[in-house]
């Protein structure tokens, strides 16, 4: 395995499971020291730390809720205090809420949290990281192909949050370019995770909408994130990469 990220310090939010865990593993395989954040499962996060350390890198887990904008600076500061600096930020944590616009009793608290985690929390983390990330650093935001294609009712708010992530990244890319910091987005399509199993209610329909007729694997998304976080992607910024098996093609 190429160790092109050896000596780099990475933070992956929501890094204890799914795409976040696969990304943390891939970064560690490439030689980066990795911090992950988690909300609820401390045991699962600590197990991930042990798994990452087996790659011969340093690792740590930090409890942090991405919905808490005020806590973003504290999370970034804790990572810098532990590891000495920050070179790579992967904002992966996200939530999804099914809520048709004509629902007579929408769960407004769930919708507020969706916007807080997926949109304002993302912006807060990037702002906090921008103050300390090294020149030439990498910021990768995990969006969703829901920003450009849905095909199902009930996800207008979710799509709006993910569309905002892509727009925010394009603006942030200009703001941070003077320090050679890149800001990019990956937009996963249907990916097999515990939150989105390929046996779910819409799975058969969604698979049929892809070119490969299957769900993707978290590792396939992680590969794109690691590329954007690496030295070969130095001239890519403000870009959106769909990792979706042709779902949006």
TrEMBL record:
It comes from the Bacteria. It holds the Pfam family adh_short_C2. Keywords: Oxidoreductase. GO terms for molecular function: 3-oxoacyl-[acyl-carrier-protein] reductase (NADPH) activity. Its EC number is 1.1.1.100. Signal peptide: none annotated. InterPro entries: KR_dom, NAD(P)-bd_dom_sf, SDR_fam. Belongs to the short-chain dehydrogenases/reductases (SDR) family. This is 3-oxoacyl-(Acyl-carrier-protein) reductase. The lineage of its organism: Bacteria, Pseudomonadati, Thermodesulfobacteriota, Desulfovibrionia, Desulfovibrionales.
């Amino acid at each position: 395995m190429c160790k092109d990220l050896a000596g780099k310090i990475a933070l992956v939010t929501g890094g204890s499971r799914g795409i976040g865990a696969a990304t943390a593993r891939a970064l560690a395989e490439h030689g980066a020291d990795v911090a992950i954040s988690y909300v609820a499962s401390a045991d699962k996060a600590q197990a991930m730390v042990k798994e990452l350390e087996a790659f011969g890198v340093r690792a740590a887990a930090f409890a942090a809720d991405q919905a808490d904008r005020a806590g973003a600076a504290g999370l970034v500061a804790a990572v810098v205090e532990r590891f000495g600096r920050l070179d790579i930020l992967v904002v992966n944590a996200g939530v999804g809420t099914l809520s048709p616009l004509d629902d007579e009793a929408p769960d407004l608290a769930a919708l507020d949290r969706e916007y807080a985690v997926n949109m304002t929390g993302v912006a807060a983390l990037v702002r906090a990281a921008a103050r300390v990330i090294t020149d030439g650093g990498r910021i990768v935001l995990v969006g969703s192909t829901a920003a450009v294609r849905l095909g199902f009712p009930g996800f207008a708010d979710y799509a709006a949050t993910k569309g905002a992530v892509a727009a925010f990244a394009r603006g942030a890319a200009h703001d941070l370019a003077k320090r050679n910091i890149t800001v990019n987005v990956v937009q996963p399509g249907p990916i097999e995770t515990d939150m989105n199993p390929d046996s779910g209610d819409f799975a058969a329909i969604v698979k049929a909408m892809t070119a490969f007729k299957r769900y993707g694997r978290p590792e396939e998304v992680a590969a794109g994130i690691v590329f954007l976080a690496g030295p070969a992607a130095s001239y890519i910024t403000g870009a959106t990469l769909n990792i979706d098996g042709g779902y949006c093609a």
